[in-house]
Write a structure and sequence with these properties.
- It comes from Dreissena polymorpha (Zebra mussel).
- Belongs to the patched family.
- InterPro entries: HMGCR/SNAP/NPC1-like_SSD (IPR053958), Patched_domain-protein (IPR051697), SSD (IPR000731).
- It is a single chain.
- With 330 residues, the protein is mainly alpha-helical.
- It folds into three domains: 201 residues, Multidrug efflux transporter AcrB transmembrane domain (Multidrug efflux transporter AcrB transmembrane fold), CATH 1.20.1640.10; 42 residues; 30 residues, no CATH class.
- The protein contains 13 helices and no strands.
């Protein structure tokens, strides 16, 4: 037996949202591990775990801010809007990495300056690129918000607010956290337990500046991609992919299927698949109301009171309310 009710689509969409929250949590954890190992050094002082948490917190605050503004102003939220947190996670991590790497790449002479000047030098290089990309994203999404398709328009509005909120939070909250981390570093306090202060005799190991990513690029990837056969192969692959993209673009067909928003293992999706299999051409939806009370004998009572919402929560009384005048004249 396959079932589908009027509220099934909304219920399944909310269930998919809860499932996406689990995936988003896993994504935050993976990004934290990546940042902690990428921008940190092998030293008790120069670990950046808490700074990575602060950056992820700024992304979370941007998501909450956007949802709060959207829900407060009544902007429609649908299944397609569930991908905005994942999009914001990618943009936010990129901005965090640029900022933290700019501080890390300061020269010994620049690191001898005070914290304020060091942060200013890092911002001079990092925030320019972050500002350009953020403004580009905001303008692109703002233009997309003018489309006549409601779901796409509201998605672009949410995305534009997301990017703007993230830019403001990373330019204020995250920069403040980077400044505090640099002050902790100058005070030689432990990165994991700031109440522990290392004396001047503490010296990190010889691998303090070792980076797996940098070493891989320098020793293996750089020499590999500069070989002539590899260069020729890259050009051939690029031309082939470009041709495939152009061909695929010409094959695009306009189509809209609301069932694509349903999870593949949901009961609603199984109903849709069965309906298309057994009734590919003609198929009528049958509405069946079950319950102890007699709906038609007590319909006027339920239309004039709120008790119907208590006894029959599965009914859509907003549609019945529109028929109140009709039933009163019977």
């Amino acid at each position: 037996m396959y079932i589908f009710t009027e509220r099934s689509f909304d219920d399944e969409a909310m269930g998919a949202l809860a499932s996406d929250l689990n995936h988003l949590s896993i994504g935050f954890c993976l990004v934290f591990i990546y940042l902690a190992f990428t921008v940190s050094k092998f030293s008790c002082i120069e670990q950046k775990g808490f700074l990575a948490i602060a950056g992820l917190l700024s992304i979370g605050m941007a998501i909450v801010f956007t949802y709060g503004i959207g829900f407060a102003t009544g902007i429609m939220f649908g299944p397609i809007h569930q991908i905005t947190p994942f999009m914001l996670l990618g943009i936010g991590v990129d901005d965090m990495f640029v900022m933290m790497e700019a501080v890390r790449q300061l020269s010994p002479e620049e690191r001898a300056l005070c914290v304020e000047e060091r942060i200013g030098l890092a911002l001079k290089h990092a925030r320019v690129s972050i500002t350009v990309t953020s403004i580009t994203d905001i303008v692109a999404f703002a233009i997309g918000g003018s489309t006549v398709i409601p779901s796409l328009s509201t998605f672009c509005v949410y995305a534009a607010i997301d990017v703007l909120a993230l830019y403001i939070l990373q330019a204020t909250f995250f920069v403040a956290c980077v400044t505090l981390d640099e002050q902790r570093n100058d005070a030689r306090r432990n990165a994991c337990c700031i109440c522990v202060k290392h004396d001047v005799k503490y010296k990190p190991g010889k691998y303090i500046d070792f980076s797996i990513q940098h070493e891989f690029m320098r020793r293996y990837w750089g020499p590999f991609v500069t070989k002539i056969p590899v260069k020729a192969g890259i050009i051939i692959i690029a031309v082939g992919l470009s041709s495939l993209i152009i061909w695929s673009f010409l094959q695009i067909k306009k189509d809209f299927d609301p069932s694509m928003y349903l999870p593949s293992d949901s009961y609603s999706q199984k109903f849709v698949n069965a309906d298309r299999k057994y009734f590919p051409d003609d198929g009528a939806f049958v509405k069946l109301y079950c319950g102890t009370p007699d709906l038609f004998s007590q319909l006027l009572y339920f239309l004039t009171t709120d008790n119907g919402r208590v006894y029959w929560p599965f009914l859509r009384f907003d549609k019945l309310q529109n028929q109140r005048k009709f039933w009163r004249h019977l």
